[in-house]
Amino acid sequence: MISLSGLNDKQREAAEQVEGPVLILAGAGSGKTRTITYRIAHMVDNLAIKGDSILGVSFTNKAAKEMRERVHTLLGSRKSRSISLLTFHSLGVRILKKEITKLGYQENFSIYDQSDQISIVREALKLYHAEKKFDQKEVMAKISMLKNAGITEMDFADSHHFKPDDPYDHATEYAYRFYQEKLKFFNAIDFDDILFLTLKLFRQNPEVAKSYSEKFKYIMVDEYQDTNPLQFELITHLTKTHNNLCVVGDDDQSIYAFRGADVRNILDFEKSFPEAKVIKLEENYRSVTPILELANNVIKENKKRREKTLWSQKPSEHKPILWAMGDTDHEAEVIVEEVVRHQGNGGHLGDMAILYRSNTQAPPIEDQLRLSQVPYQIIGGQKFYDKKEVKDLMSYLFVILNPSDQMALRRILNIPHRGIGNATLEKYLKKSEEENLPLFSVLEKYPDIDPARATGIKTFVQLINKYKKKFQTSTLSENISLLIEDIDYLNFIDKQYDNSKQVERRRNDVMHFIESANRFTNYYKDNANLKNFVERLLLQDSQDKDKLEDDEDSDVRKNEVTLMTLHSSKGLEFRKVFLVGIEEETLPHKKTITMGEDISEERRLCYVGITRAQETLIMTYCKQRKIYGKDLPRSKSRFLNDLIDKNLFIEQDRTTFGHMSEEEAKDYKKSFFSNLLGSLGEE
DNA sequence: GGTTATTATTTTTTT
DNA sequence: AATAATAACC
């Protein structure tokens, strides 16, 4: 029996309102996750609702993981196991894996990432002869935008997104058609397709949609303000039978408009679901009053919003601090120094987070943490599977799984070198197009097109076919190790790089990859097949992979400082938060300023950052920052500069030691220089 | 035909 | 600073 007595009146009302549509308007830190997790526990434990009829959807892996862990803590693994707590994308993949043949794809489809997508668009633009050059990334971004708006390559030219006098749109039209055709031919889908195709499936096969809406009797959507039209429609399909939908969100934290999120979904919820019960959570349990005051004042400047003012019962003497720094190295130095100082005073590293607008801000801080030997973890950023070595190895797995996957095939055909370069490849590609046969089948059927390369090609085809069989019979991890040996990949790395440090790092990545395959095999036992492994690599971030290592002590936060973007910090909280780079052109970002776009989303990002902090908030900006390798002057962000009440935070200039008394500054400088000399002596 | 040196270009945020 | 496109080289 789960007791709801730990919830406040509003929270309890939300947890107990299990039937029908419910909208929970939850300000930052108002115990939103707590409310939904208790709601789930209440359903399972007190109302005897079956776990497999409950679906909880969120956006990021991080959020889904947090939900899973907290439900697990409340219910234990036996009762919580069958509950589906997923991201929109993993839900989509799950459905597509079962049903995609209905859309004319094979069930062993590949999922393409951004670099694959751009390669295809590049090829399309090469074929699209025009005197003007088009930017592949921009064209790809437009295609992605169209998909998220639900517009197919056929509909584009007739839609209001198409401007007949814009050459870009004509190029995009061509590229979009080319792109979709190729994906289908390669038996591959992209990230946008995961939702797009799931929806297409539901539209074309109402009986399939119905079966899922019958299965999921109770549906919850987290961060509802970030849903785009596709996700909204998906939810509509799923709730059709039982109409038990509970959405949670906060319009002030809507930060995904760039990928099609539409705040109107939350603002007009009552229109779409007329009997909806609306519950507002306004008391903040997270932060201390001075932090909330700053947050309220920052977000107040946004005009279009549901007026709300967060309040909490936690007073504090300490106001948020703003530090001016010299450059990014100085910023990193001072922050890490403060981290170490806090740790020395008994602070826990797991209670601290360093948040930034973009991933490019992380490296200097990372370097400094490493130098000072402070343990840290980076969320997001360059994913493990974005590394070249990992991509190579994964491409082998893709081809073994889905030989039609031409992008993966082309990547590994000459890795390790088999003497098959561009010119050779072209010959086989030509045949592939003529016969409308996947490239791999061409290699298999007509290896002699280029007689000089035929032996290499035959050996390659044999290798793939050999492993295709092997993966069906013997264990996953064993085969992956064997494969890496078979292609002599470690030796290939040795030959590629003469820098021994690089070789070392890349070898390490390979080992890490083997390691993760081993862990996966041990954890999933009989379910550890190639398909599941590849899916996991594609959809889960490296954080989740680490989770396999320590499945027992999951509720103990690791003793590491967390580094991440403002976007991925949403939904999380830390006692001490560093908000770095609060500068014009960083936050708000240059792109939004120069494009003359609405900066209100940037302000919401700032708001999200501030409201992550429970006790201490330290914001920083640099007077100088390296852009394209050049030092450029920078200034304080308008989000702080425009505040009328300057007493909301304390401002100190660390470059002039403005935060210290003269006496302290003198001592500080002395110790600083002696440390510097000391560290030079050690080198 | 394949590899490497040179030059041009570029940075948001996530699945 | 890092990466991709292009040109020059083996």
Fold topology:
Elements: H1 9-16, E1 22-26, H2 32-46, E2 54-58, H3 61-80, E3 84-87, H4 88-99, E4 110-112, H5 114-127, H6 136-148, H7 167-185, E5 188-190, H8 191-204, H9 206-215, E6 218-221, H10 229-239, E7 245-249, H11 264-267, H12 269-272, E8 277-281, H13 289-300, E9 321-325, H14 328-344, E10 352-356, H15 362-371, E11 376-378, H16 388-401, H17 406-412, H18 422-435, H19 439-445, H20 454-473, H21 476-486, H22 489-496, H23 500-524, H24 530-539, H25 542-547, E12 561-565, H26 566-569, E13 574-579, H27 590-594, H28 600-610, E14 613-622, E15 624-627, E16 630-633, H29 638-641, E17 650-653, H30 662-682
Parallel strand pairs: 1-7, 1-8, 2-3, 2-6, 4-5, 6-7, 9-14, 9-17, 10-12, 10-13, 11-12, 13-14
Antiparallel strand pairs: 15-16
Helix pairs in contact: 1-2, 2-3, 4-8, 5-6, 5-7, 6-7, 8-9, 8-10, 13-28, 14-15, 16-17, 16-20, 18-19, 21-23, 22-23
This protein binds a DNA duplex (15 and 10 nucleotides) through residues 59-61, 87-90, 113, 191-192, 194-195, 255-256, 258-259, 357-360, 380, 414, 417, 419, 421-424, 452, 538-539, 541, 565-568, 589-592, 601, 605, 626-629.
